From TrEMBL:
This is Reticulocalbin-3. The chain crosses the membrane at residues 16-35. Gene3D superfamilies: EF-hand. It comes from the Eukaryota. Keywords: Calcium, Chaperone, Endoplasmic reticulum, Glycoprotein, Golgi apparatus, Membrane, Metal-binding, Repeat, Sarcoplasmic reticulum, Secreted, Signal, Transmembrane, Transmembrane helix. Probable molecular chaperone assisting protein biosynthesis and transport in the endoplasmic reticulum. Required for the proper biosynthesis and transport of pulmonary surfactant-associated protein A/SP-A, pulmonary surfactant-associated protein D/SP-D and the lipid transporter ABCA3. By regulating both the proper expression and the degradation through the endoplasmic reticulum-associated protein degradation pathway of these proteins plays a crucial role in pulmonary surfactant homeostasis. Has an anti-fibrotic activity by negatively regulating the secretion of type I and type III collagens. Belongs to the CREC family. Residues 32-67, 68-103 form the EF-hand domain. Interacts with PCSK6 (immature form including the propeptide); probably involved in the maturation and the secretion of PCSK6. GO terms for cellular component: endoplasmic reticulum membrane; extracellular region; Golgi apparatus; melanosome; sarcoplasmic reticulum lumen. One of its GO terms (molecular function) is calcium ion binding. InterPro entries: EF-hand-dom_pair, EF_Hand_1_Ca_BS, EF_hand_dom.
């Protein structure tokens, strides 16, 4: 038995549950969580006054959301721009996403790829502002993240209606 710090007091504990800093696992976890929170708060607290205002938190959430959207688009861009011409055509997207289904339109499983493809095509057309059926990076971002674009709001509303309808069917 060694004397260690646990839950704010010195406690006798078996050596195998203590760590080099002399605290038990649950306290180590708690200390790490507090330190992580302090690091995050220091990033959110723009004026460094030790407090996070609603405005600072809102700005941080928006920044984190933009970062997520940017990273997601960059990651998927590499996958879908098959011919590396700096644009993504509907054919490229469709072939990468639904190539297996297109090769075998009547698979044994009942998953409805046809319906998904029709839905994706409608969203792709809506995101494709100039109507050439080829997505620039901005158009592809609108396709992947319609919630970020005003001109895509109709598709977001439609998605939410379908989502809530399916949720109500499953729960009823
Ligand atoms: Ca391309
Ligand atoms: Ca286009």
């Amino acid at each position: 038995m060694v004397t260690t710090w646990c839950h704010g007091k010195n406690t006798k504990m078996p050596p195998m549950v203590t760590y080099s800093v002399g605290a038990c696992l649950c306290c180590i976890t708690f200390i790490r969580a507090v330190l992580s929170c302090r690091i995050i708060v220091s990033k959110i607290d723009l004026d460094n006054d030790g407090f996070v205002t609603e405005g600072e938190l809102t700005a941080w959430i928006k920044k984190a959301q933009r970062r997520y959207v940017y990273d997601n688009v960059e990651r998927q861009w590499q996958e879908f721009d098959v011919n590396q011409d700096g644009q993504i055509s509907w054919e490229e997207y469709r072939n990468v996403t639904y190539g297996t289904y297109l090769d075998d339109p009547d698979p044994d499983n009942s998953f409805n790829y046809k319906q998904m493809m029709v839905r994706d095509e409608r969203r792709f057309k809506m995101a494709d502002k100039d109507g050439d059926f080829i997505a620039t990076k901005d158009e592809f971002t609108a396709f992947l993240h319609p919630e970020e674009y005003d001109y895509m709001k109709d598709i977001v509303v439609l998605f939410l209606k379908v989502f809530y309808w399916k949720s109500s069917v499953i729960t009823s």
